[in-house]
User: What shape does this take?
Amino acid sequence: MSRLWGLPAALAGVALARLSGCQISGGDGRALLARAPARSFVSRFLTERGFNAITIGNVVILCASPTPTLLQHELEHVRQWEQWGLLFVAAYPLASLWSRLRGAGWHRGNCFERAARAAAGER
Assistant: This one.
């Protein structure tokens, strides 16, 4: 059921990856890995903001080499998408806003990011 719940987001992730010229591979069975070309819009957009990847549904678009830590982090976001489905589109920015209002910054204090860091063994 969780895969079906996240299917609309996964389709959007595949569309973004294809439009960005990404090479898509099978990943580990839970996620599709898409390597973004360095000059693509998505790669420039993410790297200019200090991010190495973005997860949309079960599609992980990578702008950097997929280290085990990065993959574990992004697989937690896949799990979040499976749990929340399209509600994640609203839940993630609301969690960022709540984090910002608490003084923890937009990204660092976001509960979804904290969970992803914990899953990957990051601080």
